Amino acid sequence: MAFLLAAAPLTPSLADGTAAKPGDFSPFDPPLPTPNEDFQNALGDKVTLADFKGQVVVLNFWASWCAPCVAEMPTLDALQADLAEAGLKVVAVSLDRDGIKKAAPFFRRTGVKNLKLYTDRMSDLFQELKGAALPTTYVLDRDGKVVSVYIGATDWSSVKVKAELRKYLDAKPAG
After folding, report:
1. Residue 163: count of CB within 10 angstroms of its CB
2. Residue 169: CB partners within 8 Å, gap ≥ 6?
3. Where is the Thioredoxin domain (predicted)?
4. What is the mean pLDDT of residues 60-72?
5. Which of 36, 50, 56, 75 could bond to 168 as cystine, CB 3.0-4.6 Å?
6. What distance in Å separates the CA atoms of residue 114 and residue 116, rounded to the nearest whole number?
7. What is the pLDDT averaged over residues 83-98?
8. Least confidently predicted of 10-14, 18-22, 47-51, 60-64
């Protein structure tokens, strides 16, 4: 499955027109509005990012065939366990075309315990966000605004990453 579209940039564009930098958090200034496209939970029900308003969301796009995605999944699982009480929600969305049939066995096989399963088989949400590479992770603040993007795999349990996320966890919602 190819995610690089001819008309799309290799990486999402920031407000000033520059491309997001792989391997680091790239802020959106001003933040982007909450994306509208829905995706599915493990039962096949529609979910939107508005459903998570009030929490800081780490929106991770992954696929079972993506080696860097596989490598970072345990740290995303640990991040959810570590910062859930602070108001963080890791929403890991599989882009596998077989949806839950592929994603559920992957979670079982890799020992994921703290994340719920979400799928976006047609990549609608990923495309709305102008995603182009896997893994790509967006951070949404408590108001649901997209405040930054991280392209590539990372260790989500690192002190540097947690410090970046705490900025949003410690901020009060605007509404």
Report:
1. 9
2. 56, 83, 86, 87, 88
3. 28-174
4. 95
5. 56
6. 7
7. 97
8. 10-14
* Sequence ranges of the domains in the chain: 25-170
Other C-beta atoms closer than 10 Å to the C-beta of 115 total: 18
DSSP-assigned beta bridge partners for residue 32: 146
99/44 Cα distance (integer angstroms): 9
CATH number of the domain at 25-170, please? Answer: 3.40.30.10
Q: Retrieve residue 90's tokens.
A: 């890791």
Spatial neighbors of 100 by CB under 8 A, at least 6 apart, are 40, 42, 44, 94, 117, 119
Give the β-pairing of 88-94 and 56-62: parallel
The string of DSSP codes covering 28-75 is: EEEEEPPP---EEETTS-EE-GGGGTTSEEEEEEE-TT-HHHHHHHHH
pLDDT for 37: 97
DSSP reduced 3-state for 107:
helix
The arithmetic mean of pLDDT across residues 104-127, rounded, is 94
Residue with token string 């963080």: 88
